[in-house]
Amino acid sequence: MVTATATDQLCKNFINGEWVESKSTKIFERRNPANNDEVVARIPLSTREEMKRAIAAAKTAFPAWRDTPAPNRGKILFKVVRIMEEQKEELARLLTREEGKALKDALGEVQRAINIAEFMAGEARRINGETLPSETTKTFTYTIRQPLGVVGAITPWNFPIAIPIWKITPALVYGNTVVLKPAELTPLCALRIAEIFAEAGLPAGVLNVVLGTGEEVGDELVQNPLVHGLSFTGSTDIGCKIYASGAQQQKKVQCEMGGKNPVVILADADLKMAVESVAGGAFASTGQRCTASSRVVVEEQVADQFVEMLVERTRTFAVGDGLQAGMEMGPSVDETQMNTVLKYIEIGKNEGELRSGGARLTGPKYDKGWFVAPTIFDKVKPNSRIAQEEIFGPVVSVIRVKDFDEALEVANSVRYGLSSSIYSTDSNKIFEFIDKIETGMTHVNSPTVGGEAHVPFGGTKQSSIGPHEVGHGAMDFYTDTKVVYLDYTGRKRESSQK
User: Positive or negative CA dihedral for 272, 278, 279, 281?
Assistant: First the structure.
């Protein structure tokens, strides 16, 4: 099916199993971030009424989907896995054209989405409650898990296949129906996901996709009383507003938001390994991920050597159109994001010592795209803006410290708490770091980025609100617990009887 995602015509919404042309006259033209001459998609900015239709369709489809045996729901997800495996290269190329990341990173994202879908398909046979001993004689007490109902998913542009999949698949396997509002910049990936689920046999109305702005269709998803759960990934400011609004309506809400992730490098670290990991963690995917390695906290006695090695590695970091062979980094997702990165680079020139990059890339290879050079600032103060605020671009701040205790203090000195990393061979310091670092995820001698399909994903502080995503723990968000007291005395029980 190509009617939903052909680039030479207006994209359509997916509502109640049908491709529906929006009645909106507001059209957004999406261009390839590596080549602005190429129109990738034309997107309608749908109306609030169209979102209401999608929510109503999900509400109508819910009873039958809820009553479908969970293993049968899982079988559909296994079909999704097979289709995605067959189309992996095609999906990755679509992702790169639309979002800009290097093809190797796009392939990694698609594989992660496949792994998550496969794990969640298996969860269909693991939706377990528990039995509990009762205080009362001849009473069987147990719990069961039941779906919320209609779940709204609001997803960002930086992982336009993996993040929708890790919200949609647990929602569906646990018996919910879904309305997805993808980012305006990456509609084609979301629509292709809808096509794949339809091809796999998902009933009409169980998954719906509406294109448009957060202010219009996103807000309707948040405010509509028929929506019982909201899963959001995006900025901290917007996530906090969504969480507050959901709380007022007593909706279940989870938000995955920003990060300012530290890599701590101690004097005994393998510097070659640390340099390679920092370069990949900071610059791959153009730094446009919440787990990017944006701060390097390094002990002073090895700082000069580390910085020189990182600068040298950055000079060889291959930047260009992500579809070209050998590229390690693509462009910023659009002009607005590029300008945000350039603004922070100008701020950084007054807050640290610029060692590499620091400007927009120019020349025949770059002039038609939104390319920024991988940028390194050295001798940055921990409380400076570039060390505290999320830039979402290929910019890394090196902060020098005297010892491990100061490194830990600096690593914890931001409002975010998503991911972290330490490079060392000292097991005592490694375990103390694990105990005291204020992040939801931490890595030892590996980058801040990455995760696995069966492992929870989420942070602390202002990075996350609500239950973590991914893995078996996703059940905590996408289901409610019902407690059952089954009396088998066969007669009226006296209130004092035990």
Answer: positive
